[in-house]
Amino acid sequence: MSERDGENRGEAWTTLDKDLNRISQVEQATFHVARPMVGLGVALAFIIVAGLFAALIFGGQPGSAVVIAAAALGAYMAINIGANDVANNMGPAVGANALTMGGAIVIAALFESAGALLAGGDVVSTISKGIIDPTAVADTQVFIWAMMAALLSSALWVNLATWIGAPVSTTHSVVGGVMGAGISAAGFATVNWGSMGLIAASWVISPLLGGLIAAGFLWFIKARIMYQPDKIAAARRWVPVLIGIMMGVFATYLAIKGVKKIIHIELPAALMIGAAFGALSYAASAPIVRHKAQGLENRNKSLKVLFGLPLVISAALLSFAHGANDVANAVGPLAAIVHANAVGEFAGKVNIPHWVMVIGAFGISFGLILFGPKLIRMVGSQITKLNPMRAYCVALSAAITVIVASWLGLPVSSTHIAVGGVFGVGFFREWYHEKRLDQAARSKKSQRIAAEERRRRKLVRRSHFMTIVAAWIITVPAAALLSAAVFWGLSHLAG
């Protein structure tokens, strides 16, 4: 073989390698583009299976077509809950690197489903927290169309919010859907504007209370642990206390919200249960924290080790409580349709059939697995930078705020509370950073930073803040307008 032939063959192999590499890149690009289509395909398959499942149960019965369509819409709503609402519980833990995305999805799917199936309420309000007067919607068929419109419009709105990257309240979306359909069916007089006023107030109260409580705990951790001369000794003293508070709060939270299917517990008894669990958790965690703290360097980075596991536990408990409490609200319109179709009349409260809760639980898991990572990343890392200590404050504030709101009788949104906690932590860090800069400048330890440079160093991304707040404000009106339009279309098609 001549030298020339060898060179030609070498060039040919090089060319072939380049071509194969290009083919490989095309395959990778095709796979990347196809992944969203796979998610949509799986979601559509689940919606169809939910409809077929309802057909097996109600096939041949009068009005079965309506129930089958409602089951498909309920599955669509459940998928959107998993894609949007669940991110608020898992986002801080993922953003703080206490959990991987895969671990968060597995834990959330398991605990959300367990909460829905084991502790989900037996009874749900069909008119979603008394938003409209049942007697104003006298005709059963009109009521069924109103609930269908509420279900579809709230699911569409949550889907749109997930697409633009805004965590919104699914409960508020359902409230807006019910209100819009009620107004379209029977006029503005049918709406209980007092209840709507409380819900509107919760738009402000929920995030503010969540943010203030989260900021308060972060201030405590900074003052008592992070800025102490011996950080590890301070952590050995205070981390068990914080764990005891966390477990006590979650025991109270679950006693009020999570086990109502099994037993009804009043707030004073729930507080006593929480105090007992808190004391036991403190006693159990103190030796564990002491053991884990051995050999740690006296710096803030070492403290992350001590907060990692409590943060994971808090995220799992939040998911369980969310599954127990919020899923029933979301599938309420579906349960109302099933009841009205079977009995021939509607009621203010109805039992939730087991198959409806199964659709809700599995739909949440599918939505979380297929579409949840986008909002998890948004809440966990794109609003502000979180570490285990900050994320722990967010999780703790979420549980405390729900208990306080239950005591005050305020309708609050778990989404608004959790995201408000993230904002509270971020804005507290900004304030604390500015305060330290001013102190350093007054003591001549550093030069004063210009106002423009300070604005550039903000620790909360203002674009995300404005997008999320705008989405919160327009959730109820947007879902109501969508619902009114859908109800008008359905009633005209039926007529």
Give structural attributes.
16 helices, two-stranded antiparallel sheet, elongated, single chain, mainly alpha, 1% strand, 495 residues
Can you describe this structure?
The protein has 495 residues and is mainly α. The protein has one domain (43-494). It has 16 helices and two strands. The chain has helices at residues 3-58, 64-84, 87-95, 101-119, 140-164, 170-186, 193-226, 231-258, 267-293, 300-330, 332-343, 354-382, 388-408, 414-442, 451-456, 462-494, and strands spanning 123-125, 349-351. It has a two-stranded antiparallel ribbon with strand order 1-2.
Concise description?
The protein is mostly helical and 495 residues long. It has 16 helices and 2 strands.
How are helices and strands ordered from N to C?
HHHHEHHHHHHHEHHHHH
Given the structure, what is the number of helices? 16
Gross geometry: elongated
Rounded to the nearest angstrom, the radius of gyration is: 26 Å
Which range does the strand content fall in?
under 5%
> End-to-end distance, in Å?
86 Å
Major sheet details: 2 strands, antiparallel
Query: What class, by secondary structure content?
Result: mainly alpha
Output mean pLDDT.
Answer: 81
Strands, helices and their partners?
Blueprint: H1 3-58, H2 64-84, H3 87-95, H4 101-119, E1 123-125, H5 140-164, H6 170-186, H7 193-226, H8 231-258, H9 267-293, H10 300-330, H11 332-343, E2 349-351, H12 354-382, H13 388-408, H14 414-442, H15 451-456, H16 462-494
Helix pairs in contact: 1-2, 1-12, 2-5, 2-11, 2-12, 3-4, 3-10, 3-12, 3-13, 4-10, 4-12, 5-6, 5-11, 5-16, 6-16, 7-8, 7-13, 7-14, 8-9, 8-10, 8-13, 10-13, 13-14
Membrane topology: Multi-pass membrane protein
Main location: membrane
Subcellular location: Membrane
